[in-house]
Structure of Ribosome biogenesis GTPase A:
Amino acid sequence: MQIQWYPGHMNKAKNQIQDRLKLVDLVLEIRDARLPQSSTNPVLEQIIKAKQRIIILNKADLADPLMTQQWLRDLQAQQQMALALDAQHTNKLQVIQSAVQELMQAKIQKYQQSGVRNYKLRAMCIGIPNVGKSTILNKLVGKKVAVTGNKPGVTKNQNWLKTTSNLELLDTPGVLWPKIDDEQVGYNLALTGAISDRLIPVQDLAVYALEFWQHEYPDRLQTNYQLTEQELVLPPAKLLVYLTQKWTGNDDFERASRRIIQDIRQGLLGQYTLDRVQVNGE
Ligand code: GDP
């Protein structure tokens, strides 16, 4: 797979985020709930170090709710505060505000004990492109703000955005690149639209998707594409051939592949989670 991330850019983005991290009390790490693993990024663990963090599994409306619960349990078992969110359809992100207060309890107590009243808790959003950082920032702030820089390594002076509570946010989200060191991660990111479609041949992506749905969500595949029991268990490449003939009347594999991918992105094949929680020893 050809993914070009120039080391220079990566270092620049990393350094900028590292600098800005010094200014905040905590990090809101935004991930895509459909990809709780694939939408992480390689250097965050290194640069975040001891900084307090809340992991937000955003776009939970698109993800498989059972899987989201599993992921939350898994993160919480690792003493990591985590929550699921549908930032698109939720107006006030009270759930984030509450989580921040809980996470920062010790600091809040210190302020209170020393009589400081107007204390602020400062945070920054970090995540790979397209996970919903700007949407979350806007909703926390309660109005549309010009979120600056949504490309890795954009330079800007930072401003603090006020929210309805004592939480303040950096107006520049930390944008990191996804870690695509494994083909499956690349496919997962492409299927959700997190990375450009051009990076993977559309037919390969469609076959990957069919195989996943045959394995994980066969009922929906069968109902939506009106498949017989025999068709449902065809090898995925053969199933693509079958669907292509059925839909296009010829061998326009590209058109059929695009339809499958579009159906998935538009939710016609239901809520889905592409990353599975790793069980110990797997
Ligand atoms: P950013 O690149 O991380 O800043 O992501 P954006 O905030 O620009 O969001 C990317 C796209 O995802 C936009 O089209 C949003 O409307 C959409 N989006 C953001 N949050 C959610 C969510 O919770 N659910 C759904 N369905 N879409 C979302």
